[in-house]
Design goal:
The structure holds two protein chains of two kinds. Chain A is mainly α. In chain A, 74% of the residues lie in helices and 1% in strands. In chain A, a hairpin with a 5-residue loop joins strand 1 and strand 2. The model of chain A has no long low-confidence stretch (mean pLDDT 91). In chain B, strand 1, helix 3 and strand 2 form a beta-alpha-beta unit. In chain B, 49% of the residues are buried. The chains are: A mainly alpha, B alpha/beta.
Chain lengths: 269, 391
């Protein structure tokens, strides 16, 4: 059972460790005390004070998922239908940004979005008053995340669209369906597994991303992942951080399972 | 991604840019530091004869008398990047005949993680003073044998018995810096002097605070007239309220004070004094002040690790670093003031006369050092989580 042992070693075991840590309490130098195990950290996690950050996290992750799919679908469609012999090359190009560190690419966005950055420079050059604040805003966070997770949306969509038999679309057109109707009644439903896979593959990393909100966001854009990171690195409160992290994982798993169940009912069943 | 999460003062006294300029101007030898600088000027016998500091009574009980043994032939030193004079190490090697292996780190977390294993192999490292108490309690470092560090007399009186390490039992101070406010005079014409500037709605969206719990609470506590090390819940709640009022006016919380100030994204910022030099490379209209209400002073120290294999050489090195001329050479190269009173006569007047690096005595008296509060740190971090996650 290599699959099962893989799951145990890389998923169940780390999750169990996080759970056990989340039941402890911190000692003063960042260690974890296991003397009074309990759910006190979960009680803290559910306090209403954290709600705005949870709201931010979902806002960014949902917006990122939406924009990623809206942008990725035409790209994947184009590569699949018109890529011809260059399909493989085009897919490699989609993956190309991964050859550069994520942090460095995010720093590049900082330079682009600054008050005296590239975008404001262009706006100024065409005579618009400025500068407009782009960096340290919600917009910058969503832009940065969408940019980063777009390849995760393109790949499953490409696979799904590529597998779609063009004869089915042709059949719809033969039966006097318009281009739009054929797309919405044939192509879109048949590529729904790809869309759901793309949604999961962008939503899950987006909800856990703390680098983008930290670098492109500002004082008002704290996400739950950033709070977890602060708790582990500077607040020396691993148990509370572990509790928040565990809740985040549970929510993500429940969401994923619900997504897959929906997929089975709507598309397969 | 910890490389982007600098939680403690970045030790980058000389920017890459300044380094490159320096290389072009002074030749490569200056820039490559100890390894290439084939400098072998006459070693100074220590302590400097010219020094005549008043010797403060040392609170430290002398350790059991050790017959001064000869140092080992090797030494492993672990320091912040670019945080020592360019030929300090080679001078030490020449004078003592000890082979030094010199490595560096760029964050306190990295260093702590390495030494906490107990077999890092290093003898001497340079923690920020706030860490001393924890290191002692966790057994990461061992007491110093003060009889092997006669140059301790060179320290200014206020550094002979610091609050973070009474009697210098476990550490010798190395360099210090301040936290205050930096602002761009091209955007703000009036002269700023107070912490209140960081709450001024006129600069809404153009202000930033440090992404550092103790520093940012420290700023609010000083503005309120309280100690930066308070453990009073009412005082801390007042500080939290003040910071919550400020949050909507802020553009960001960041430790990248150099980046946001030099880009012009931020006009007024809670900043580390030593960083402003690098900002001025890019934007020379940015100035730094220690607010009239007082500021925060931080310092780095030299300590002997618990499992050091070369303790005698380590003591010799720490003693060497406290030599007046060596300390002055370090300051002249990295631009930080040290605690060494005897060194002052050898320090570049440009540094001595710069009030942002070397503030006058009246202002120094108003600086507070952040201490490790042990279990009470949670009072700060819990409120910090509240501040950062609130709407």
């Amino acid at each position: 059972m290599p699959g099962l042992s893989w799951l145990v070693v890389f998923f169940a075991l780390p999750l169990a460790i996080i759970f056990v840590v989340s039941l402890g309490s911190r000692d003063q130098y960042g260690g974890v005390l296991f003397e009074h195990l309990g759910f006190h950290n979960y009680a803290r996690a559910l306090e209403p004070e954290l709600l705005p950050t949870v709201g931010n996290s979902f806002k960014y992750a949902l917006a990122t998922t939406f924009f990623s799919i809206v942008i990725a679908y035409p790209i994947a469609y184009w590569i699949s239908r018109y890529g011809g012999r260059r399909k493989v090359l085009l897919i490699v190009l989609v993956m190309l940004p991964f050859w550069t560190s994520w942090v460095i690419r995010t720093y590049a966005w900082m330079i682009i979005l600054r008050d005296n950055g590239v975008v404001n420079g262009l706006l100024g050059a065409v005579g618009l008053p400025g500068p407009i604040q782009l960096l340290n805003t919600d917009l910058a966070v969503i832009l940065g995340m969408t940019y980063g997770f777009l390849p995760f949306a393109i790949l499953p969509l490409y696979v799904s669209i590529d597998r779609l038999d063009p004869a089915l679309v042709q059949a719809a057109r033969d039966l006097y369906s318009g281009g739009a109707a054929a797309f919405f009644h044939v192509t879109l439903p048949l590529t729904m597994p790809g869309i759901i896979a793309a949604a999961l593959l962008t939503f899950i990393p987006a909800i856990g991303d703390f680098v983008t909100p930290d670098l492109l966001g500002g004082a008002q854009t704290t996400t739950i992942a950033k709070v977890v990171q602060t708790l582990f690195l500077s607040a020396r409160d691993w148990p509370f951080g572990a509790a928040l992290g565990f809740l985040l994982i549970v929510v993500t798993i429940v969401g994923t399972v619900a997504g897959l169940r929906f997929l089975r009912q709507e598309v397969v069943g | 991604m910890s490389e982007i999460q600098r939680i403690h003062p970045p030790r980058r006294p000389i920017s890459r840019r300044a380094m490159l300029r320096g290389m072009a101007g002074m030749g490569a030898a200056a820039a490559f530091g100890p390894t290439l600088a084939a400098c072998s000027s006459g070693a100074t016998p220590s302590p400097s004869a010219a020094a005549s500091p008043s010797v403060a009574p040392s609170a430290a009980a002398s350790q059991e008398p050790t017959p001064v043994p000869s140092p080992e032939s090797e030494l492993y030193v672990y320091n912040w990047t670019e945080y020592i004079g360019e030929d300090t190490i080679s001078k030490f090697e020449d004078q003592y005949g000890i082979k030094v292996t010199y490595d560096f780190f760029d964050s306190a977390e990295t260093m702590t993680a390495k030494i906490s294993t107990g077999n890092s192999g290093y003898d001497v490292t340079f923690p920020t003073s706030t860490y001393i108490k924890g290191y002692v309690e966790q057994g990461f470092i061992q007491p110093l044998d003060l009889s092997l560090i006669p140059n301790k007399v060179n320290l200014a009186p206020e550094w002979q018995d610091p609050e973070y390490d009474p009697g210098n039992q476990h550490s010798m101070p190395y360099m210090w810096w301040t936290t205050g406010v930096a602002y761009d005079t091209a955007q703000i014409e009036e002269e700023l002097t107070s912490w209140k500037a960081l709450w001024d709605p006129r600069w809404s969206g153009k202000m930033a605070m440090l992404d550092d719990v103790r520093e940012t609470f420290g700023a609010a506590l000083i503005r309120l007239g309280y100690s930066v090390n308070t453990t009073s819940d009412t005082e801390l709640d007042e500080a939290l309220k003040l910071l919550q009022d400020q949050k909507p006016l802020l553009r960001t919380y960041t430790t990248d004070d150099i980046g946001v100030l030099s880009s012009g994204d931020v006009w007024v910022m809670h900043a580390w004094g030593a960083d402003v030099y690098q900002v001025q490379e890019e934007r020379d209209t940015v100035v730094y002040y220690i607010p009239e209400e007082g500021g925060v002073r931080g310092s780095d120290t030299m300590v002997l690790l618990a499992n050091a294999k070369h303790p005698i050489a380590a003591h010799a090195f720490i003693n060497f670093m406290l030599d007046a001329e060596v300390a002055a050479a370090n300051t002249n190269y990295i631009g930080y003031m040290g605690p060494n009173e005897a060194a002052k006569q050898f320090i570049d007047p440009a540094i001595l006369d710069d009030p942002t690096v070397n503030p006058d005595k009246a202002l120094v008296a108003k600086l507070q050092e952040i201490l490790d509060l042990g279990a009470d740190e949670a009072k700060y971090t819990d409120r910090w989580t509240k501040l950062r996650s609130g709407a």
